[in-house]
């Protein structure tokens, strides 16, 4: 069925008059948006369902969200027959999020399901925590993370507080696909809604403090600058920091105002230095030791600390997680809590330094596909056998303990500020602490390149790029032989020098390629599951003997990555 044929189906019931008028306008104006709005259906990716808001099967709207929620309701009722079923719903600051949250609640209550609905926008990790703490059967959060303002999204959590994974994900998707738009029950029952307010924030914050802090050392002397970048953490992080004992907290007041327009930034993504520009300006005025920003739904964090020139520098996700992981394991070791039955979680696109950290402290490092849902699955799979300590991925996400089963900026911020206070008390910075870790384990340096290809043609172009990299892997990168090619879609590992291929089925299939070179470089290639992008993750390694030669080694490793990009024709 063509896009225009699919669009014309939306000119009749069950679609409401407002939707019909919007579709008719698309058709009559010969808008190029018509094809992109209808040429496919939105799909669940690594972060759930995410897309541009508007009418159409490839857009986030009342009907695509209603279809997803009706399918979810069908599945939940099948899985938990003859019992009271509860689903928690949260939403972030994006346009329509509050309305979408109530609409999803209406669909669930129309199916006889009780809903715990947040009164106002709250961070995604608080939803994950609430699912477990309130013993819900599932959870929903409306968010598009750090995407541009025109986006929104929908993520589903299971009863362990983690995002859905096999077999629930495919079973739910099957129910969604088998649900017709005229089968959606929109007429909800408000008597089945329990409203959640600030009292839940306090329970969540106490859990963050309990699970994410280790020692009370000079916290009152740490100068912190924090920004929520117009997102949800305005309600939780400042309160958590004060409760944990931090006193010198300067907020970027202009960005503490929640807004789906994100008016002071080009992109509300703490991975990008520009998003923290106002915070960095404030840091100069107040002489901050650490700058922290979070994304709109409050699960990712960006951290800037003072470098060797005493200037604020944004740490990348791997560097941040290296510091947090090393410190946690060191604290566990000092307390005699490690017995060899513990593990940390990571992902296939994250730095391999986490294997080295795990080895140093005698714990296991388990690796999954991109996305924290796979770390959540690790926790569930090994519950009662091995203790999960912490986990992280390169895209500025980290979690401490298993009380939240998703990346959690609040707990991570408390931990990062404790480390910063610890370092300051010992006359050094977090940056110097990172260099000490590199001196101990070897220096890793990473970089990410994203190439955006929008629309149907862009999707085809990304698909062809993956085919080309899969069928024609490079034999050499910056003078070092490529020795392994891991193909997670084919679930094989090709040893190029021996022309030998082995089956690799310990991780589910995914459209990801990884090249390893003889000198320890690692290059991962994958299409984004939530954005029209293809991503290239670079990791190179070397040794550093002292602070004095750190900058020189940094230049060498950065030049090496630039050479790899050139060899890959990026």
Automatic annotation (TrEMBL):
<dbReference type="InterPro" id="IPR005845">
    <property type="entry name" value="A-D-PHexomutase_a/b/a-II"/>
</dbReference>
<comment type="similarity">
    <text>Belongs to the phosphohexose mutase family.</text>
</comment>
<dbReference type="InterPro" id="IPR005843">
    <property type="entry name" value="A-D-PHexomutase_C"/>
</dbReference>
<dbReference type="InterPro" id="IPR005846">
    <property type="entry name" value="A-D-PHexomutase_a/b/a-III"/>
</dbReference>
<keyword id="KW-0460">Magnesium</keyword>
<dbReference type="Pfam" id="PF02880">
    <property type="entry name" value="PGM_PMM_III"/>
</dbReference>
<keyword id="KW-0413">Isomerase</keyword>
<feature type="domain" description="Alpha-D-phosphohexomutase alpha/beta/alpha">
    <location>
        <begin position="43"/>
        <end position="181"/>
    </location>
</feature>
<keyword id="KW-0479">Metal-binding</keyword>
<dbReference type="GO" id="GO:0008973">
    <property type="term" value="F:phosphopentomutase activity"/>
</dbReference>
<dbReference type="InterPro" id="IPR005844">
    <property type="entry name" value="A-D-PHexomutase_a/b/a-I"/>
</dbReference>
<feature type="domain" description="Alpha-D-phosphohexomutase alpha/beta/alpha">
    <location>
        <begin position="317"/>
        <end position="438"/>
    </location>
</feature>
<dbReference type="GO" id="GO:0005975">
    <property type="term" value="P:carbohydrate metabolic process"/>
</dbReference>
<dbReference type="InterPro" id="IPR036900">
    <property type="entry name" value="A-D-PHexomutase_C_sf"/>
</dbReference>
<keyword id="KW-0597">Phosphoprotein</keyword>
<feature type="domain" description="Alpha-D-phosphohexomutase C-terminal">
    <location>
        <begin position="506"/>
        <end position="554"/>
    </location>
</feature>
<feature type="domain" description="Alpha-D-phosphohexomutase alpha/beta/alpha">
    <location>
        <begin position="203"/>
        <end position="304"/>
    </location>
</feature>
<dbReference type="InterPro" id="IPR016066">
    <property type="entry name" value="A-D-PHexomutase_CS"/>
</dbReference>
<dbReference type="GO" id="GO:0000287">
    <property type="term" value="F:magnesium ion binding"/>
</dbReference>
<dbReference type="InterPro" id="IPR016055">
    <property type="entry name" value="A-D-PHexomutase_a/b/a-I/II/III"/>
</dbReference>
<dbReference type="Pfam" id="PF02878">
    <property type="entry name" value="PGM_PMM_I"/>
</dbReference>
<dbReference type="InterPro" id="IPR005841">
    <property type="entry name" value="Alpha-D-phosphohexomutase_SF"/>
</dbReference>
<dbReference type="Pfam" id="PF00408">
    <property type="entry name" value="PGM_PMM_IV"/>
</dbReference>
<protein>
    <submittedName>
        <fullName>Phosphoglucomutase</fullName>
    </submittedName>
</protein>
<dbReference type="GO" id="GO:0006166">
    <property type="term" value="P:purine ribonucleoside salvage"/>
</dbReference>
<dbReference type="Pfam" id="PF02879">
    <property type="entry name" value="PGM_PMM_II"/>
</dbReference>
